[in-house]
Amino acid sequence: MTTRQIDSGMVAYQILNEEGTLVSNMPDLGPAPQEMLLKLYRAMQLGRTFSHKIIALQRQGRATTFGSLVGQEATAVGLAAPLRQEDWLATSYREIASHIWKGIPLPTLIYGFRGFTAAYPPECHTLPIQIVIGTQMLHAVGLAMAAKLSGDPVVAVGVCGDGATSEGDFNEALNFAGVYQAPAVFVVQNNGWAISVPRKKQSAAPSLALRGPGFGIPSVLVDGNDVLAVFEVMKQAVEKARAGDGPTLIETLTYRIGAHTTADDPRRYRDEAEVEAWKAKDPIARLRRFLLAEGMLTEEQDRELVAAVEEEINQAANEALALPPNAPDAFFDWTAATLTPRLQAQRRDAQQYAQE
Ligand SMILES: Cc1ncc(C[n+]2csc(CCOP(=O)(O)OP(=O)(O)O)c2C)c(N)n1
Ligand SMILES: [Mg+2]
């Protein structure tokens, strides 16, 4: 196994290097490896195109604030691909490509970025995106403990950013999971920044993966721009959790190429040279180089694939834009199974306000 040395003093696991060359064994991709490689590639393209589309809609006043996933597609796809449908996924806002892989329909996701809510299919076992930083890690542990107590062979995955590791919720989630050996996998997408706060301000630990052993949780550092490495590490962690052998913490080293959200201007706080250096490690270009070199994809097929992905996203956007908006008080339907008297009063206020 060849790996690359990183500043943290730990070594990030890598299978496909920046040039798109295999530096470690290909993971077990199931009965049809070539199809799976192309599926992973397409899913990353879908994530990127989705991101571009919502940002364009936001600029036109047709979508809400949105956080770009450009540069982080390998982590989002690689973490979702080894999951079974019944495994739970609890993510932040940066992992739309994971939700797409889990089967959430594109129009449902796009409708969400119009500021409205459409139910996720319950069988997808995916929680809606979480904006409140770090809380989804607790939800993942709760889902994992429920599975454990019920004897279901189900794993729950919590995904957060580097900034979220400084939240109490993150640390409480890991502590509880370690003590009770929850069948959970925690993924920290270390994309270098928490809005304008750099990774080094989050922890003096040389790597975020090193936070795990303090909770008695085995941890892995992986190249987050290498979809195959993320897939392999995730697969092992999920299998381990499913076998009853407890949680794992995975730090994926990646980078947010775009702005934090459509409400941010990263030129105010970060060096353009840093962005350029990371562009050279692009996760999609890396797998594309490998597929082209192996003869699994031609330039022509690649162009067709990208055009088909764009068409799919555009059609889904048209569908989502044609849907009627939620009623102004609809969000009460999603907050509690039974509204308390105070919430009922608030709902009446909201209805009255909307009519004025
Ligand atoms: C509890 C809480 N505090 C603050 C915020 C405001 N906020 C939104 S995103 C963000 C930074 C998160 O950084 P990170 O965890 O690294 O995730 P990334 O955006 O880089 O994917 C903050 C502080 C919030 N949403 N929730
Ligand atoms: Mg971050």
Automatic annotation (TrEMBL):
<dbReference type="Pfam" id="PF00676">
    <property type="entry name" value="E1_dh"/>
</dbReference>
<keyword id="KW-0786">Thiamine pyrophosphate</keyword>
<dbReference type="InterPro" id="IPR050771">
    <property type="entry name" value="Alpha-ketoacid_DH_E1_comp"/>
</dbReference>
<protein>
    <recommendedName>
        <fullName>Pyruvate dehydrogenase E1 component subunit alpha</fullName>
        <ecNumber>1.2.4.1</ecNumber>
    </recommendedName>
</protein>
<keyword id="KW-0670">Pyruvate</keyword>
<feature type="domain" description="Dehydrogenase E1 component">
    <location>
        <begin position="41"/>
        <end position="324"/>
    </location>
</feature>
<dbReference type="InterPro" id="IPR001017">
    <property type="entry name" value="DH_E1"/>
</dbReference>
<comment type="subunit">
    <text>Heterodimer of an alpha and a beta chain.</text>
</comment>
<comment type="function">
    <text>The pyruvate dehydrogenase complex catalyzes the overall conversion of pyruvate to acetyl-CoA and CO(2). It contains multiple copies of three enzymatic components: pyruvate dehydrogenase (E1), dihydrolipoamide acetyltransferase (E2) and lipoamide dehydrogenase (E3).</text>
</comment>
<dbReference type="GO" id="GO:0004739">
    <property type="term" value="F:pyruvate dehydrogenase (acetyl-transferring) activity"/>
</dbReference>
<dbReference type="GO" id="GO:0009083">
    <property type="term" value="P:branched-chain amino acid catabolic process"/>
</dbReference>
<dbReference type="InterPro" id="IPR029061">
    <property type="entry name" value="THDP-binding"/>
</dbReference>
<keyword id="KW-0560">Oxidoreductase</keyword>
<dbReference type="InterPro" id="IPR017596">
    <property type="entry name" value="PdhA/BkdA"/>
</dbReference>
